[in-house]
Design a protein that fits this description.
Length: 473
């Protein structure tokens, strides 16, 4: 970095390709120094890094550096050429002096990945929907696990996966522990495991690699970065066997672990709400590659799933459960980034960091109050803007119900309820997504019964609802 600052001060350079993580002076600090100290003129600067694009942009913003161009490693010639052309204001020139159309770096990656079968390990239903939609459209077959323990159970029953996309912070078993368990099994030792996490703190990538993961995709998702990273590690079995030409899953979408066709769910497609404070709709739509129906569906999930996060964080801290409190803040950070609620995303990141670093409770609460105010205003605005009734519909993929997982989880839940054991509430919240899917009409009644310690009533409703699926507990 210091050599670069000295060189730019002496010579007239058109552009600089800057690494981020370097000893003595990192790339962001170097860019700031070049901007402040350049004698001749400030060259166009492009950051080239193995870390996530969002991480680099966030760090540059934190240090007050206007960073426009980020290229992620591994670098492809087309992406590098396009980035340099844009940074220098010259576009991209092809053979014969003809200016090309804008290069889509993800297109080639998607073509290589078509037909891939992956295990998505993610506990948040909003993140599940986003990843499944993007992957399904690209021709992936996706199996969903709600936590690390479920992922290991899935692999034990069926390890015919081309790769694993692993969230890091989850209940029951986190992604780091699950990955270490995967690497300890010789049968899964070579399976690509790629982290998908909202963390962008120093040392997080090193922690991912140390756990045995191959790479890291930052949340909120950058679609281009996601597919380029996946293509670096994942080779579809259909491609390895020479059968890729005959396989086209683009019309199938996403399926769960059970064989057969994908089932469908209906979601509303409303007008995108405009003028809501702390909601950058343009950024949110970029996250979902312009899919308005998916974006509105995510807004609906956000207002339901994140509404009570501050209260849940307070309750966890009061119980001394800092792991759960940190995870709740982490999830709020990621989901807020997904929809474009960038101020809430930043505030949640501060709460997460404060809990993680063990700061004074008063400091954590002050930060939480700020987030709570912004979140409450956004939730109220979404309640006002999004009607309760669905006026139009589109078809999106939904996982097939995991009957075996339902039997195990419901059996454990009923066991705790029958024993008047308060751990029933933990099981209920840990597997809430599965219970919601299994009993969409009754899950609220069961949850409310558990909340007021009416365990017998919860058992009655639970057993009646699950008989529809042939599950006896």
């Amino acid at each position: 970095g210091k050599q670069a600052v000295d060189l730019v001060a002496r010579e007239s350079l058109d552009g600089v390709l800057m690494d981020w993580k370097m000893p003595v002076m990192d790339g962001v600090e170097c860019m700031r120094r070049i901007r402040d100290e350049a004698v001749v003129h400030t060259p166009a600067m492009i950051m080239v890094t193995a870390f996530g694009r969002e991480e680099a942009l966030n760090e540059a913003q934190r240090q007050g550096v206007g960073l426009q161009y980020v290229v992620t490693k591994p670098v492809t010639p087309s992406v590098l050429l396009e980035s340099i052309g844009e940074a220098l204001g010259r576009g991209v020139v092809r053979e014969g002096g003809r200016r090309s159309e804008r290069v889509d770096p993800a297109r080639e990656a998607k073509a290589k990945l078509r037909g891939a079968r992956v295990l998505l390990v993610e506990d948040n239903d909003m993140n599940q929907e986003l990843a499944m939609e993007l992957l399904g459209e690209a021709g992936f077959e996706v199996v969903v696990a709600g936590n690390g323990r479920e992922a290991l159970d899935r692999l034990a029953a069926d390890d015919r996966f081309d790769g694993v996309l692993m969230d890091c912070q989850m209940p029951v078993m986190d992604g780091y522990s699950a990955t270490r368990a995967i690497r300890e099994n010789p049968a899964w030792g070579r399976m690509p495991v790629i982290a998908m996490t909202a963390n962008a703190m120093a040392g997080d990538r090193e922690k991912v690699i140390a756990a045995g993961m191959n790479d890291h995709i930052a949340k909120p998702l950058d679609v281009v970065e996601m597919f380029v990273t996946l293509a670096k590690w994942i080779v579809p079995a259909v491609s390895r066997s020479g059968g890729c030409e005959a396989v086209d899953l683009s019309g199938v979408g996403v399926v769960d672990a059970l064989p057969g066709e994908a089932s469908s769910a209906r979601v509303g497609v409303d007008e995108i709400p405009c003028g809501i404070p702390d909601l950058d709709v343009e950024t949110g739509l970029k996250r979902v590659v312009g899919k308005k129906g998916l974006y509105v569906s995510m807004l609906r999930k956000y207002r339901v799933g994140q509404r009570d996060v501050p209260a849940r964080i307070r309750a966890a801290l009061a119980d001394g459960d800092h792991v759960t409190a940190e995870r709740e803040a982490h999830t709020l950070k990621g989901t807020s980034g997904n929809i474009g609620a960038t101020r809430i995303q930043s505030g949640a990141a501060q709460v997460e960091a404060a809990i993680k670093e063990g700061r004074q409770e008063s400091e954590v609460m002050d930060l939480l109050v700020q987030v709570e105010g912004m979140l409450g205003a956004l939730i109220q605005a979404l309640d006002d803007a999004l009607p309760a009734e669905v006026e139009a519909e589109v078809l999106v993929a939904r996982p097939v119900l995991d009957l075996e997982g339902l039997r195990v989880s419901a059996g454990a839940l009923v066991g705790f309820l029958a024993d008047d054991n308060s751990e029933a509430a933990d099981v209920w919240h840990e597997r809430l997504g599965l219970f919601k899917q299994a009993m969409p009409e009754q899950w609220r009644q069961v949850g409310e019964a558990i909340e007021v310690f009416d365990f017998e009533g919860a058992i009655v409703v639970l057993r009646e609802a699950l008989r529809v699926h042939g599950v006896e507990v």
